[in-house]
Amino acid sequence: TSGSTGLPKGVQVPHGAVVNFLDALIEGLELDGEHTYLATTSISFDIHVNEMFVPLVLGAQMVLAARSQVSDGTALRDLIEAEPDLIGQGPPAMWRMLLDTGWRPYGMAAVLCGGEAFPRDLAQKLTRDGVPVWNMYGPTETTVWSAVHRVADGEGTVPIGRPIRNTTLWVLDQNMDPVFPGVPGELYIGGEGVARAYHDRPDLTADRFVPDPFAGHGRPGARLYRTGDV
């Protein structure tokens, strides 16, 4: 991950966190093996995890887009339109590139959008054909996506949504106390998806991964990840 610094950092994500993420995503989005899954993401970007492993877990078909197709709106549109009942994932820029070619999402089983803030105008264009559209939120440090929200047609500002299974979201002040609704605070993420550490960065690990005061006695050593998002 590079986060806001632009400098790559290795993140140690345990297998159990990935398994929890895949199970939670399949359950929360009601995914099944009858659909075809589009893979457009480089393996250097963490969101490739669900593109690669969800179809393997479900025994479903995966369509792997070539690098040249991912950067060419017309080529990617042709690939998508050739595969009915497709579930695709990508950042807002990818979906906007497709729309700029005249593409419409009808025929797709679902559209997953994440990696950046989901602009309202883009959400309205993607939801107008009745296809399920999901906003996906989460940093690499908490295993790909930590919260999801199904976007309603005509919705205003798109929220990050609710936490996936076995995940907690807390908006806290500088004293690690929950803030009242409407009061600004920093978003902390806890639960099964929290990574172990940054690779060879103990200083940064200590700063960003902090003890979870809300975990209770059943989860000794549990930690929260400080996202830096307000």
TrEMBL record:
This is Adenylation domain protein. InterPro entries: AMP-dep_synth/lig_dom, ANL_N_sf. One of its GO terms (biological process) is enterobactin biosynthetic process. Pfam families: AMP-binding. It comes from Streptomyces luridus. GO terms for molecular function: 2,3-dihydroxybenzoate-serine ligase activity; phosphopantetheine binding. Residues 1-199 form the AMP-dependent synthetase/ligase domain. GO terms for cellular component: cytosol; enterobactin synthetase complex.
